[in-house]
Amino acid sequence: MCPCGLWCLWDCLMLWFGSRTLTTINAQKEIGKSLGQAYRGWVCSRKVRLRIVVWRGGRDDLRSSGMTTAATPLSERSAWKALAQHAAAIKDVHLRTMFAEDPARGERFTAEAAGIFLDYSKNRVTGETLKLLVSLAEESGLKGRIEAMFTGEKINITENRAVLHVALRAPKGESIFVDGVDQVPPVHVVLDKMSDFADRVRSGEWKGFTGKKIKNVVNIGIGGSDLGPVMAYEALKHYSQRDLTFRFVSNVDGTDFAEAVEDLSADETLFLVASKTFTTLETMTNAHSAREWALASLKDDAAIAKHFVAISTNAKEVSKFGIDTANMFEFWDWVGGRYSMDSAIGLSTMVAIGPDAFREMLAGFHAMDVHFRTTPFAENLPVLMGLLTVWYTDFFDAQTMAVLPYEQYLKRFPAYLQQLTMESNGKHVTLTGEHVATETGPIYWGEPGTNGQHSFYQLIHQGTRLIPCDFIGFYKTLNPLGRHHDMLMANVFAQAEALAFGKTAEEVKAEGVPEALVPHKVFEGNRPSNVILADKLTPKVLGTLIALYEHAVFTQGIIWSIDSFDQWGVELGKVLATRILGELEGTGELKHDTSTNRLIEKYRANK
Q1: Contact at 8 Å (CB) between 443 and 401?
Q2: What CA–CA distances, in Å, run from 336 to 136, 167, 419, 551, 591?
Q3: How many alpha carbons lie under 13 Å from residue 267 in its C-beta half-sphere?
Q4: 109 to each of 103, 117, 364, how far by Cα in Å?
C-alpha cells in the first residue's frame, strides 16, 4: 500500500476519468518514455509535487489531430538528410565568395510584406539551401499546422488547448471556432469594453475615490502579463498620453513595488492587476502590497473599486479582493501569456496610446497573420526567418541569436523576445514525449542601437562563437534631430557589412599596420545577419514586427516537432520555492540536499 494512502488512488482515478483527454496529476517520477504511453502504475505523489501531464490517447490521437510529423523523426526526414549533406559541402564557403559568384543575391535574397522588408542575403545560404529548407518545411507538415492553428484545432497537445492569439486581432466578421463556438465575437466584446474604459481614464471621466483624476497607472503582472505591456509602452511611448504616468511591477522583490510607487499619490493612482486565475503568487503578492499601500492613504475598503481593475477570469477572487467585477477584463485559456499582449493584458497599452492606436496595432498583427497563412514558403517572411534559425542552430551549432534594434523605443524588444522564443521552444522532448534528436531553441538576447557596439559587438565580430544577428531599422525617425538618424542607420548597414565580409590580413597590411598587430585587426567575417527595415515605428508596424517573430517561432517548433505553446519547465522551481518559503519562515527539519539545507540554514541565521 502506498504510504500516502488515497492520494495516489485519487491521482489514478483522475487519469482514468480523463481518458482520451489531458489529465493533470501529481507525480514523483517521469511517467513512461513518451506522452503516448498511459500510466499503468501506482505512484506516490506526496514527496515531490511536480505537475506533469499524460496524453492517455497515445500516438493514434496525435495523428488524428493532425500531428503527423511525429511519425517521422526529424533526423530521418529526407529533406533533413539532404540538408546535412549540403551543410557539410558549403560550411566553409565564405560570404565573400557567395557574393562574388552571385552578385545579384543582394537583390534576390529579399522578401517584403505587410510593410516589412527583409534582406537575408548576408546569410550563409545558397539557392539550394533555401530550396532544401523549404522542402523541410513542407515535409514537416508546416502548411497543415498553420491551418490547424488558424482554424482552432487544439495544437497545444500537452494542455489540450487551441492556440488562438491570431483570433485576438481577427477583424469583426471573421470566424474561428473552438468546440463549435466562434471565438471572434467575444474578443471584440472585450475590446469594446477595454476601449470604453481607456477613454474614461484618458479623458478624466474615471475618478479616484476622492474625486481626483487618475494621473498614474501601475500594471501588476509577471511573465507575459508584464513583458508585453512594458515592451509595448516603451515602444509606443511617442504615441502615449503624456499627462499619464505608467509604471510596471512584476518582480516579487519588494524593491520593484516600492520604487514604482515611491513618488505617487494613492488618490491619483490606478492599479491594473493581470492574473488569469487571480492566484499567481508573485502578482498577487504585489497586488496585496498595492492594496495595503492604497488603503494606508485612502482609509476605506470602498476605495479599492475605484483604484483597482482586474485582467482575469476568476470573478470570485476578483470580488473577494474588492474589485468591482464590472471592471474585470476577460481573456481565454487559448491565449498563452507570451502571446497575450494584444488581449486584455494590453489594457495598459490601450490606456497609454488610446483605443484607435491599439486597433492599428492589431491591424499590423493581422496583416502579418494573413501573410504567414497565405504566402508560399519561399517568399514568407516568418517561415524564412524560422528556417534560418533552424539552419544555424542545427547545422552550424549556433547557441544564441542577437536581436539588435536600431531604435531606442525598442529597447525592451529583445527582453520581450526572450520569453517569446525561449519559453516557446526551450524544449527537450518531442510531441510524442521522446527526447529530441537535434538542438532546439537558441538563446535570444540583444540591446538597442549603437549601445551594443560599444559593449558586446567585439565578441560577435572577433570571438569564437557564431552569433547570427537580426538588425532592425527604420527609414524615418520619430524624433528628427540633425544627422542623428542617418548616423544611426549608417551603423546598421556598416555592421551587417562588416560581419559578412570582414577584413583580411592583406587589407590590414595595406593600411600600413605593423606586422605584430595584423592578426589583432583581422576580421574573419562570414558572420550571418538579417536586416529588417520598415518605414517608421508606428503601432501598426510594432504589431507586424511582433507577429513576424511569433510565427517564426511557430515555424521552428513545427520543424523540431515540439509543443511551442506549453511551459512545463517553469513549474518545478515554483513548486520547490513554495515549500522552501515555509521553511525559511520556520525552524523545522530540512530534507533537501546538503547544499540547499546549508543555504537555508545560513539565510535563517542572518535574515
Answers
A1: yes
A2: 27, 12, 11, 14, 35
A3: 8
A4: 11, 11, 24
Residue 169: its pLDDT value, please?
Answer: 98
Whats the size of the chain, residue-wise? 607
The yes-or-no verdict on residue 17 having pLDDT over 50 is no
404: left (phi over 0), alpha (psi -120 to 50) or beta: beta
- Asked whether the beta carbons of 291 and 321 are under 8 A apart, the reply is yes
Neighbours of 108 (CB within 10 A): 10
CB of 168 closer than 8 Å to CB of 78: no
Decide if 340 contacts 222 (C-beta within 8 A): no
Annotation says 423 is catalytic: yes
- Rounded to an integer, what distance in angstroms lies between the CA atom of residue 30 and that of residue 10? 18
| Sign of the torsion formed by the C-alpha atoms of 48, 53, 57 and 59 | negative
Letter string b/e over residues 136-147, b meaning 16 or more CB atoms within 10 A of that residue's CB = bbebbbbebbbe
The full 3-state SS of 28-54, as one line of letters, equals CCCCCCCCCCCCCCCCCCCCCCEEEEE
Report yes or no on whether pTM surpasses 0.85.
Answer: yes
Least Cα distance to 274 among 248, 249, 305, 310 occurs for 310
Percent of the chain with pLDDT over 90: 87
Q: What pLDDT sits at residue 71?
A: 62
Closest CA to 359 of 367, 350, 368: 350
Residue 310's φ and ψ, nearest 5 degrees, are -120, 140
Paired with 295 in beta bridges are: none
- 262 catalytic? Reply is no
> pLDDT by residue (tens digit) across 413-457?
999 999 999 999 999 999 999 999 999 999 999 999 899 999 999
Among 172, 316, 435, 454, the one annotated catalytic: 454
**What are the C-alpha distances in Å from 357 to residues 202, 240, 479?**
13, 10, 19
Catalytic-labelled residue, pool 574, 591, 601, 602: 574
Cell of 450: 549603437
> What is the Cα–Cα distance from 384 to 108, expressed in whole angstroms?
14
> What band does 167 get if pLDDT is binned at 50, 70 and 90?
very high
Reduced to 3 states (helix: H, G, I; strand: E, B; else coil), residue 462 is helix
536 belongs to the catalytic site: no
| Closest listed residue to residue 137, CA positions, set 372, 387, 381 | 387
DSSP string, 308-325: EEEE-S-HHHHHHHT--G
Region of residue 451 (phi > 0: left; psi between -120 and 50: alpha; otherwise: beta): alpha
Q: Tell me what pLDDT residue 48 has.
A: 33
> What 3-state class would DSSP assign to 242?
coil
Strand ranges for 347-447 from DSSP E: 400-405, 443-445
How far apart CA 3 and CA 10 sit, in angstroms, is 14
Of 234, 360, 423, 550, the active-site residue reads: 423
Q: What is the pLDDT of residues 292-333, one digit of tens each?
A: 999 999 999 999 999 999 999 999 999 999 999 999 999 999
CB neighbours of residue 377 within 10 Å: 20
